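Continuing the series of single-chain predictions for the mutant panel. This is the parent chain; the variants come on the following pages.
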Amino acid sequence: MGRKHQFFIGGALAAAAVSLAGVGASLAQTTLAPNPDPHNLQGTWMSAPRAHLTKDYTPHLGRGQPDDIPDSEITWQVGDKMPPFTAVGKAKFEDAVDAQINNKPHADPSTNCMPHGLPRLMIAPYGLQIVQTKGLITFMHAVNHNVRFIHMDQKMPAKVPLTFNGYSVGHWEGDTLVVHSKGISSAGIIDQLGTPHSDKLQVTERIRKIDGGAHFEDIMTFDDPVMYSQPWTARIIDNWDNGHRISEYICEENNRNGADAEGHTQVK
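Parent structure:
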């Protein structure tokens, strides 16, 4: 009985080994060169390095420079120009910068394990898996397991509720996926530093593959008459990384950085 059982386990292990070998071969195939088809965005992408900000508002890649604003990963206007803040927007931005410099950063939704929200969701330095089905492109983000739906070839509804990610409609213009989003809650922020937006924000993205599919370019235009005097545009790049597997992201359990009563983060 024992020997038969042992033989069965051994056979099962052998079969499992063969099966795993097949899986390994299958996984190896997914790490080959990216698909150059411009209309096929499916697969996994990882963020390229994002810009950080010095105390004189100069963007640069990398972090930890002596004159860095702490944790100032930013999305900045193309051309490294400061976004065209209104007086209200500038005051909110300066408040965020001051809090970072004095090591009293304000809490934002992600501090308490709430969604990052659009557009910050697209800027977060985590993996993004894209799945395309009829009439729908789904962006599945590792960060907080956020899911974003792009409704293809549909009109924007006359009224959309305010949500963290807003409501997105898209269509193709040649090799570029054009996405328009609105109904984005002002509870979110544009980037890690705290660049602000109001609930009047509308975002237009022009997403395309570049370099034969090795990179994913997202040209994001922000139109928010409350925080900015005119629309402005930023550019982000993600790298093809279909060998990456989206992992479980649990923020709620043993959260070390929840906000105190005054809205400041705490490090435990």
